[in-house]
Amino acid sequence: MLWLYLHFPSLQLDSLYQTDNALPVAIVHGRKSDVVQRNENAKKSGIKIGMGLGSAAALCPDLQVLAYDEKQETAKLTHIAQWLYLVTADISLYPPNGLLLRVSHMLSLYQGLDNYWQVLTKHLQRLNLRYEYGCGYSPYAAKLLAMSASNQLNDNKQQIDNLLGSMPLQVTDLTKKVVNHLGRVGVQSIGDLLRLPLTDIAKRFDIELVTYIGRLTGQLRHPVDFYHPPETFKHYLELMFEISNLQYLQKPLFKVFHLLEQFLRFRDKHAGQLNIELHLRDSESVHFQVHSAEGEYQAKRWLNLSQLTLESIKVSAPVIAITVEAMQIRGNDFRVMDMFSKHCGAISANELVSRLQAKLGKGRVQGVTQVDDHRPELSTIPCPPLQKHSTIKPTKTSATVLQPSFILPQPLPVQEKMNIQHGPERIVAGWWDKHPVTRDYFIARNSKGQWLWIFRTSGQSWFVHGLFS
Asked: 208-223, pLDDT tens digit by residue?
């Protein structure tokens, strides 16, 4: 069984959003205060892996330092596995920075190891991550070769065994006590260990060493838990710099939206809502939502909607990171359009609603539906935009009633002379809910030429209730 191990030595560093690549950056382990990751500019300044923070700061005064975050690396590793799952099936996570891939079952699909590797590396290039790799006929062998940065892709068992045999025991997962014990009997490398008969090893050492050798050589089965990606998207992006002007969030947001687009496009799905969290320095995070009435997957359209929403958001402290979570993920429901229509290319009603909601807020964009009430001010109620409701079938009488499309929120007293053109039409209703009305409605025209909808009460008072367009 052939395995491939991918080791990402600078996963947290590569996951950062940086606009200025000239800055030297180092990731420092919190407990030991030593450098565990550094970029190329920090390397040119003389900073080495394992160097203390004091020495690194002395060599490079403008060094940008970040604390190592294992949870962040593990989350990124899960995202990589989800991305690779599109081209290879059997993936196992080795947190915080390793992936194990079972290659044997994929060779018939890709017609050889070279073709498989070509597809895999092309897929990985889109993530812009540095990695080391190794092949072996056991998970332990592949991991050892990858961790030693052998970067070999080979299915020749003899060559793989030769590479393993030259490696010292210190790079294995054996305890320090076992390594020292083996060293006292002259076993210094993996090759020395594999040349010993298992029966002799079992007599002098515990069963754990025998099990390790059996799994390293592939003689014993190595239990592996394979990854199954969820149909969810949630991505955290840490910024290399603080942002106070939210308009500058466009580029980091677009980076996350691009990942979302790839996630949705390969699944032939779209999202109806994004939950975005802005992580602030020394302050509580700001949460907001971006909605798409039609459902969307394209990064540029989500960016346009988020820009409209960000215009109305205030932050009390600079933004240091962002989290984007996709909600309401569902299959695509494509619209059928006439290719030769003169309106082809215009935005749809759903797109218009999405833009208005992003600009004004979801609660401020509503539709209107009709209810069975003859009182004009109560004959319609708000509803979600573009939502279909059961319509009220008009009676023969109500179908002939002329009513304006614009009703005033409150009737206004008539304060000018008008010429009545049509009417009256009486409405008597509301006795059942203790809000009775008795009105005679007329269509009138004032001196300015406006067509108005007016009514007369039982007390002979006149009011304007609507305007005709």
From this structure: 899 999 999 988 889 9
The pLDDT confidence band at residue 391, using thresholds 50, 70 and 90, is low
Is cis: bond before 96, omega within 30 of 0? yes
Within-domain flag for 37? no
Which of residues 9 and 332 earns the better pLDDT score? 9
Q: Which residues pair with 329 in a beta bridge?
A: 271
134 to each of 67, 76, 82, 163, 226, how far by Cα in Å? 29, 21, 21, 10, 19
**Contact status, residue 237 vs residue 254, Cβ threshold 8 Å:** no
Quote the number of domains for the chain.
3
pLDDT of residue 94: 95
Q: Do residues 433 and 459 both lie within one domain? A: yes
Same domain, 74 and 213: yes
Q: What is the Cα–Cα distance from 466 to 231, expressed in whole angstroms?
A: 51
Q: Quick one: CA dihedral 10, 16, 17, 22, positive or negative?
A: negative
CATH number at residue 276: 3.30.1490.100
Residue 369 within any structural domain of the chain: no
d(CA 359, CA 361): 6
> 417-431 burial, b if ≥16 CB within 10 A, otherwise e?
ebeeeebebebebee
Q: Are strands 64-67 and 25-28 parallel, antiparallel or unpaired?
A: parallel
What is the CB neighbour count within 10 angstroms for residue 294? 18
CATH of the domain at 149: 3.30.70.270
Same domain, 168 and 87: yes
Alpha carbon 11 to chain centroid distance?
Answer: 18
Q: Which of the 8 DSSP states describes residue 329?
A: E
| The pLDDT value given to residue 168 | 93
Q: 160 and 119 in one domain?
A: yes
| Domain span including residue 282 | 234-333+341-360
For residue 45, which amino acid is it? S
Cβ–Cβ under 8 Å, residues 145 and 134: yes
Q: Are residues 15 and 161 in the same domain?
A: yes
Contact 338, 277 (CB under 8 A): no
Q: Is residue 310 part of a domain?
A: yes
pLDDT digits over 319-343, tens only? Answer: 999 999 999 888 876 555 555 555 5
Whether 178 maps to a domain, the answer reads yes
Amino acid, res. 372:
D
Token pair 């910024």 is found at 239
* Environment class of 433 (CB within 10 Å of its CB; exposed 0-12, middle 13-18, buried 19+): exposed
Same domain, 160 and 279: no
Give the global pTM. 0.66
